Amino acid sequence: MLDPNKLINETKSHMAKAIEHLETELAKIRAGRANPAMLDGVKVDYYGTMMPLSQVANINTPDPRSLVVQPWEKAMVNPIEKAIMAANLGFNPQNDGTLVRINVPPLTEERRKELVKKTKAEAEHCKVTVRNYRRESNELIKKENKSVPEDVVKGLEDQIQKMTDQYIAIADKHIEAKEKEIMTV
């Protein structure tokens, strides 16, 4: 038997997770000023184990154009520098023996346009995911159609469609804001 409330809540939860994922991915996209999230994907060789950079060092932004990575162990300075270089983020880290400084170069117009394309691709991925959850929910409703009155089925489909529109609008707002942030010089 189909529980309409459970279906709606599960669908909403999945769609919210898609938006959260979009927000996480957008945080990684650099928009001119330094942000510790820019280094989220960097993995460091910590005594033979690959660890996220944030788990072996403190990452700060002393000013909008630089990042400072302060390892918790002095021995980790060189591996951190190598990991940042290997991540191919377009940064040139400087190692001063106790910490790693990264100057974030200003973005060129061409690079800004590339980042906007990447942002839009992330948004489209999010929208496709949201639509897939809508489709899955609607298929589940249709499968249970025999045991649920037709007006309830129609109401559920309408509710799911409204939710889908709502989450796609949220994704569009995120993209609009990120695009504005990227294109602001």
The stretches of 5 or more residues where confidence is low (pLDDT under 50) are none
**Helix content, binned percent:** 55-70%
Helix and strand pattern: HEEEEHEEHH
Main β-sheet: number of strands, strand sense, barrel status?
4 strands, antiparallel
Query: CATH class of the largest domain, anyone?
Result: Mainly Alpha
Backbone CA Rg: 22 Å
**Structural class from helices and strands?**
alpha+beta
Distance between the termini: 56 Å
Report on the architecture of this protein.
The chain is α+β, with helices and mostly antiparallel strands and 185 residues long. The chain folds into two domains: 101 residues, Topoisomerase I, Chain A, domain 4, CATH 1.10.132; 68 residues, Gyrase A, domain 2. The chain is built from four helices and six strands; from the N terminus they run H-E-E-E-E-H-E-E-H-H. The strands form two sheets. The protein has a four-stranded antiparallel sheet with strand order 3-4-6-5, covered by helices on one side. A two-stranded antiparallel sheet has the order 1-2.
